[in-house]
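The instructor's notes for this session suggest beginning with a concrete chain rather than abstract definitions. Hand out the sequence below and ask the class to guess, before any prediction is shown, which regions might be ordered.
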Amino acid sequence: MLLIYEKDSLYKAKIYEFLFFHNKEVPFSILSQLFDLHNTTIKRYLSELQEIEFLKNELFISKTSVICTKKNVLPLELIKYFKANGIFIDILNMIYKNKYLTIECLAQRLYVSSSHLYKIIKELNCRIKIFDLELEMFPKIRITGNIFSAIYLEWSVRTLFYMDEERKINYEIKQFQRNFCAVFELTSSNNFNDEQKGYYFYYQWLQAIKKIEEKDLITQSFFSKTILTEEAENKLTFLLKAYQIPITKKHIHLAYIGMFFFKVHFDNEFSRLNLLDTKNLLQQTNNQIRYFIKEFQKAFKFKETLVLVSWLIILYGNFFIIDLKLEDSFSYLRYFPKFLKLEKEIRKWLNINFNDEISQYSTLNNLNELFLVMLSYKESLVEPVPKIKILLESSFGNTRKQQLEDYLRSTIEFVDREDNKYDVIIRDDLCFPTSYSNSMYTISEFLEKLQFIFNQFG
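After discussion, reveal the predicted structure:
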């Protein structure tokens, strides 16, 4: 919900999320207590949710309570809807579509005053600061900061409007799909359906990196040597050339990262391609985690995907951990085949080999977090690394937040509230520990439910 400005939309998204994961009728009084809102406001929000086309049959509202009956619409879909119709995305979308845009011109197009727009942009800057980005207002409006984060943010905004643009660009994406499959020798389907929208997402990724000049990538952390096989480099070079994208090592690496994001959409054939030079990558890996990587590789004989996850965390750890933690992000990690099984195997291995360090962190549910726990312990590494900074956010106010902070401080020594940049963001939105009921999905169960849904459609 990072890119939703409107408070009403935030509340409605959280209320629907609560109802979706709750398996019984919920009285308005409980929702009022939980979200610190008046009963009439709760009723108004529920009524407005029912007016949204794709939610019409999802909620059953009685005089005193409400229940989410069908559970056909994931909370993530509603969050994407509010994002796409919110002013933050309007601002970003206009910036991406216009080469030169002043604050006065933007205010006029958004039908708001310049003073109000300043306030909105100030809040937007607070949100994107964790990505090392800033929206400058003078002399023209533009986004500055970490180039990789900027690319990812632009891609996120572009792909929000997939359904709106599908008909308009259908031919263009079909052609891209055929070209992509020809380059990588994959079987191309004649039908462009929802299962293949990954080609649309990847095409938009290439359009985002196309605008980045090599001089802007100089300060970014990339390996000096190639991490790809010669065959992979040749194929990517051919693809980039076909779409007038600069042919540099860094652009090729970015193109590969994009393929990794949407790997699931390219079916099983893509998984068999040998694209990553694992040996070369490991040789260049930062000394701080080389020991862990080697031990991990010996234990799991892991494939290129896990090597790349390690690489992405090393280079862009702060960004990717935040991305994983955003409720509206279909993080690449969630698309791993047999992810949950692999996660259990990794946790078991960590407990056996690093029991003293890892045993007390059994509540950490994501593979990325397990990586970070390993990185935080100097006794397991060649060189010490800084402690992890954790930001705790709560939907239930400061009291609940303080309780969680006290709990974390009693078990984890590296919580840090002072810095404004964090490695991990923890939210308690999915816990809902109230006097009404303690029976809710855990994060792990939530991911498992998502995985089941993804398997049905992919």
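Then share the key points. The beta strands are 26-27, 59-61, 65-68, 133-136, 142-145, 390-393, 424-427. Residues 158-284 form one domain.
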